[in-house]
Amino acid sequence: MSNTYQKRKASKEYGLYNQCKKLNDDELFRLLDDHNSLKRISSAEYYS
Description:
Elements lengths: L2 H19 L3 H7 L5 H11 L1
Helix pairs in contact: 1-3, 2-3
């Protein structure tokens, strides 16, 4: 993987993680079933 790809991926993950901070438990739980894998991973990391 290129360094640019890794930075872009990390930036997206960090952004989604910060969005998860603003959500309540019900909204986080709904994201666990989202079709977007980054959203599922970020919500699971924040929810745990």
